[in-house]
């Protein structure tokens, strides 16, 4: 299992979330994002689930934790982190 914390550098619109979901689906590993909502409730979303991603408000400045688990977890987390950076 690989874990990486990042701060989202920009607001992600629905097209960005679709691309992120498609991108994560290229990997066999499970890819999830965790973050805390304002009411201190922690949310975990499967990045490969487009519906889950579209229901997740990822605003600029949101602190998220990316978690990958599986045979290609290192490649998956590196690639997902690159998605947020670029």
Describe this structure in words.
The protein contains three helices and four strands. The termini are far apart. 34% of the residues lie in helices and 29% in strands. The longest helix is centred in the C-terminal third of the chain and has 13 residues. Strand 2 and strand 3 form a beta hairpin. The chain has one domain: Histidine-containing Protein, Chain: A, CATH 3.30.1340.10. It is of the alpha+beta class and 86 residues long. The radius of gyration is 12 Å and the shape is globular. It has a four-stranded antiparallel sheet with strand order 1-4-2-3.
Q: Nearest-angstrom radius of gyration?
A: 12 Å
Instruction: Tally the beta strands.
Output: 4
Q: How many independent structural domains?
A: 1
Q: Structural class of the helix and strand makeup?
A: alpha+beta
Give the termini distance in whole angstroms: 24 Å
Number of helices: 3
- What is the C-level CATH assignment? Alpha Beta
- Mean pLDDT, as a whole number? 93
**CATH architecture, please?**
2-Layer Sandwich
Helix content: 25-40%
Q: Strand-and-helix sequence, N→C?
A: EHEEHEH
Key terms for this structure?
single chain; 86 residues; alpha+beta; Histidine-containing Protein, Chain: A; 4-stranded antiparallel beta sheet; 3 helices; 4 strands
Describe the secondary structure blueprint for this structure.
Layout: E1 2-7, H1 14-24, E2 30-36, E3 42-46, H2 50-54, E4 63-69, H3 73-85
Antiparallel strand pairs: 1-4, 2-3, 2-4
Short description:
The protein is α+β, with helices and mostly antiparallel strands and 86 residues long. The chain has helices spanning 14-24, 50-54, 73-85; strands at 2-7, 30-36, 42-46, 63-69. The N and C termini lie far apart (24 Å).
């Amino acid at each position: 299992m690989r874990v990486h914390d990042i701060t989202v550098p920009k607001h992600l619109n629905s097209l960005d979330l679709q691309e992120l979901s498609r991108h994560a689906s290229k990997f066999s590993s499970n890819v999830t994002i965790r973050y805390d909502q304002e009411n201190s409730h922690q949310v975990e979303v499967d990045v490969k689930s487009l519906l889950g991603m579209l229901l997740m408000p990822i605003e600029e400045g949101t602190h998220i934790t990316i978690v990958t688990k599986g045979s290609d977890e290192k490649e998956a987390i590196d690639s997902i982190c690159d998605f947020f950076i670029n």
